[in-house]
Specification:
Strand content: 5-15%
InterPro entries: BchE-like (IPR051198), Cobalamin-bd (IPR006158), Cobalamin-bd_sf (IPR036724), Elp3/MiaA/NifB-like_rSAM (IPR006638), Methyltransferase_Class_B (IPR034466), rSAM (IPR007197), rSAM_horseshoe (IPR023404), rSAM_sf (IPR058240)
Helix content: 40-55%
Cofactor: [4Fe-4S] cluster
Protein name: Radical SAM protein
Number of helices: 18
Keywords: Iron, Iron-sulfur, Metal-binding, Methyltransferase, S-adenosyl-L-methionine, Transferase
Largest sheet: 7 strands, mixed
Number of domains: 2
Number of strands: 15
CATH superfamily of the largest domain: Aldolase class I
Pfam families: B12-binding, Radical_SAM
Radius of gyration: 23 Å
């Protein structure tokens, strides 16, 4: 520890008008990166507060009395970038002595452009636990020589300096448990655990290869059970989601976790995302251990597109895995991407046929493709002059909305076809989910007699989510039409993100 205790504020900032469409009843889960960084800082004697604007509706003025020396933002190129920009500027005005640092994926893959913003003092590249700790220790001692802090970007007068990358944390179990006590756990709809980092797959639309540079690591099954025990004992958690990209990749650990959950007297329900390449035996074990929900990255039903995005799973394999989950009474959502580069109307129609015929119109999340920096497909779009990359940080929120909604168009599929599909999805999501459950999981409806209040609450939440998605989409389309008429209007448009599942 240094000579004095440092105060640090860590922020997960939503878009400015997020609350207009989402509230505490919407999908919310822990920002695991901030919780882990906070735990390391506390372990070394520093005072930390976490402000998660997705569930905590305070204002910047409410933190003036805390007077942090460092204010850190966890930023993705999407849901919370706009809010992070706005709050960074506000804190620079309110607390001019405080240092502003950005981390997570966007700052890591575009460190120079991020650091160039006048209201950002530092960027953290890659995992932030020990980079932030060393930065705090430098600030604590008044040491302005930051050149020895690996994984840090900083300003040396007008020069932007990006230091050597920090090695990945190989022993994840050496980290302290996340600082759950710094957040109101009960306010989150879906408490979550992150038990691994990195991904071995090569999907071209994903940032992971660039961000983690091929590194993968995970904690043991025993470590996972200990953390679940803590969350249950301390916060009475009954449901948990494993939030990493592919919880099921390490099959040996997956089976160990399932068997340990089965052996526990205190049961818990859980969910995760997975690749659609699991065996029926593993799925049966997951169901027995308490898995009730799964998200499958299908992306496309077109064999050509699956090869183009390097999915390394065939449509036939995905369909087989999907039905194994359904047969074991695990609710299964599938994620679909449309509007990708090179996608033709034939590819698009093949995906629609796959959903209709092979999967019997399941409930799915329908996303327009957005070229995110750090992914191979983003590089493809730049190289083929399909997009114009934003020249400054403030341009990214508008960029994401432009390509994520009616506006940006990168495929060969007619825009009216994509828009019709999006409209259909956003207005029939609840009906589709209800219909599919009625056809393939009728036993679920025993809940009407066993727990009618729970059934009504879930039904209300489902319809509310559909209304939020539809209203959000309609608002964004209206904004984009205004921008076409008057480019000055809403140069930094304000809205939320509809990519969460209730």
């Amino acid at each position: 520890m240094g000579e004095r205790n440092m105060k640090i504020l860590l922020i997960n900032a939503p878009a400015l008008d997020y609350i207009q469409y989402y509230n505490s009843n919407a999908y919310t889960t822990f920002d695991y990166g901030l919780l882990s960084i906070a735990a390391v800082l506390e372990q070394h004697g520093h005072e930390v507060k976490i402000w998660d604007g997705f569930i905590d509706f305070r204002k910047t003025e409410d933190f003036v009395d805390f007077n942090p020396s460092l204010i850190g933002f966890s930023v993705l190129a999407g849901p919370n970038m706009e809010g992070s920009i706005s709050l960074s500027k506000e804190f620079k005005q309110l607390l001019p002595e405080a240092k502003i640092v950005w981390g997570d994926v966007h700052a890591s893959v575009l460190p120079e452009q991020t650091l160039a913003a006048e209201y950002i003092d530092f960027v953290v590249i890659g995992a932030g636990e020990f980079t932030v700790l060393e930065l705090v220790e430098h600030l604590e001692k008044g040491n302005t020589n930051y050149s020895d802090i690996k994984g840090l970007g900083y300003k040396d007068d007008v020069k932007l300096v990006i230091n050597e990358h920090r090695p990945f944390i190989k022993d994840l179990e050496s980290l302290p448990d996340p600082a759950w006590h710094l957040i109101d756990v009960k306010k989150y709809s879906t408490p979550g655990l992150n038990t691994s980092r990195g991904c071995v797959n090569q999907c071209t639309f994903c940032y992971n290869k660039s961000y983690n540079q091929g590194y993968t690591g995970w904690v043991s099954a025993q470590h996972i059970i200990r953390q679940i025990d803590h969350l249950q004992n301390t916060y009475d958690i009954k449901y948990i989601r494993f939030n990493e990209d592919n919880f099921t990749f390490n099959r040996k650990r997956l089976r160990e976790v399932c068997n340990l959950l089965i052996a526990r007297k205190r049961k818990i329900k859980w969910s995760c995302d997975a690749r659609a390449d699991l065996s029926e035996a593993d799925i049966a074990l997951m169901a027995k251990s308490g898995c009730v929900d799964i998200g499958l990255g299908i992306e496309s039903g077109s064999p050509r597109m699956l090869e183009f995005i390097k999915k390394d799973v065939t449509a036939e394999q995905m369909a087989a895995t999907f039905w194994d989950f359904i047969n074991h009474k695990i609710r299964t959502s599938v994620y679909i991407l449309c509007g990708m580069p090179t996608e033709t109307i034939e590819d698009f129609n093949e995906t629609q046929r796959f959903l209709e015929e092979d999967l019997d119109r399941p409930y799915y999340m329908f996303h327009r493709y957005v070229p995110f920096p750090g992914s191979a497909m983003y590089d493809y779009c730049v190289e083929h002059n399909l997009i114009k990359a934003p020249e400054k940080l403030e341009d990214w929120p508008g960029y994401v909305k432009f390509y994520g909604h009616k506006g940006g168009h990168l495929s060969q599929v007619p825009e009216e076809v994509i828009e019709a599909a999006v409209q259909k999805w956003s207005t029939t999501y609840a009906v589709q989910r209800f219909r599919f459950t009625l056809r393939h999981d009728r036993s679920y409806f025993w809940i009407i007699f066993k727990n009618p209040l729970k059934f009504l609450k879930e039904l209300q939440g489902l319809w509310k989510y559909q209304a939020q998605v539809h209203n959000y989409h309609r608002t964004i389309v209206k904004e984009q039409r205004q921008r076409v008429v008057n480019p000055e209007v809403l140069s930094l448009s304000r809205s939320g993100n509809a990519n969460h599942v209730v």
